[in-house]
Amino acid sequence: MRILSIQTYCLLLVAILFCACQEEPHISEDPNQGQGQQEVDPSRDPSVVAQEAALLKLLGKDAGIAFSTTMQPGDTISIGLEARGALQIEGMEPSQYPSRYPDKKEWTCYTITDTAVVVKGDVRTLKLLEMPIKAIVTSQAPNLEQCAIVMSSPLSELDLSHNKQLQSIDMRHVRQLRWIALPQSPTFKMCDLSDCSSLSKIDFTGCEKIEAIDLTNTAVSQLDLTNNVELRILYLARTPCPLPSLKHLKHLEDLWIEEKGLFTLDVTDLPESLIFLNIRCNRVSGVLDLSHLKKLEMCTCNDNLITELKLHHVPTQLWAHNNQLTQIEVLTNETPDYVKWSEELEGLPCLSLYNNRLSSEVTSQLASKLFVIEKPTFGMAIIASRASSFEKYSFSGNSFDPTTLEEIKSKGWQLWGITTNEFGGGGMDPINY
Prior knowledge:
Helix 4 (360-369) runs parallel beside helix 5 (402-410). The chain is of the alpha/beta class. 14% of the residues lie in helices and 28% in strands. It has a 19-stranded mixed β-sheet that branches. The protein has helices at 6-23, 46-59, 338-345, 360-369, 402-410, and strands spanning 64-69, 76-90, 92-94, 107-112, 116-129, 133-137, 146-150, 157-159, 168-170, 179-181, 190-192, 212-214, 233-235, 254-256, 276-278, 285-290, 298-300, 305-311, 317-319, 327-330, 350-352, 379-386, 413-419, 427-430.
């Protein structure tokens, strides 16, 4: 029998240890990953904390996730799971029925066999849609990259602070969610909490690389974005929080702050990087000077009390109807890349001006600044309105002389009118003048 040399033996031992390290993600000896040594947030619900502890006990020292549900044994649900390596699942089994998304390999239809579900393995993606979740633990899924729990009730708390590889969170329409802990890691880029209407507090201070935040229709009352300098997308529509400081956000491109009850807007705080701006349905009055926004391609400022609008150029889409506009000043005749932005905005170039107080001189000056649209694309100039289809269209407070209308049409813009109060929402029609 040949005796191995010391050198050969050492190399063999190193190879064995390396392979062993590759098989499973590292999980600390403590199944709570140190949570037992940390103070529990006093704002947390003790009953939810207890449910999480019970789920962690089911996981033991194994990698994976666990959740409890109000679904009963025999119920079926489609779930999206992706992992590196095999998964061992307890509490549900593959169903005979097709999944909700049969063309997507990560989705499988499962039959529930227990109200506590344990998924052991190196989980990378978790997608739960319309599944009634009571509690969930992900702290032993260190490589989790995507977490989507959409339209889930009665889930009220979620701790994702241990998931340092997490890239995105999608928690839309989880209306009972009141507490969430986010990961503080450079991989975390996107957080969608829209329509989490019970959520009143959120902390992004440790999310220094986050690029997209959606808090639409939440109850968040305070928001600090001081550390989030990489932010590109911010949606705060219908939230009670005051508008946070934005000027330091040099990469911000998309800002939605509609229906926030704003009476004033500090335009000097808007970063020059903005491409899309939505401030519709507020109470902003007086002069709105956006002339420093040289990259602006969509400006939605309708349904305010604005009397004067200043722009660097006419953007691909300008929605300025239902204001008190007497003046629109445009600095340049710059032509935007309207083909690109029409695709991005999923709509045609648009100029909506009805229900204002623009004189024929002002509309003539604006027409001279309009960019030319080449066929087959065309623009929609919504300049007239009526209350019902039984009425005739009118310029509704504005004045357009025939020469101005011809100039608008000569630049590739069609004239349109809108019916505002028709049962079922009315509609728009091309008009002739």
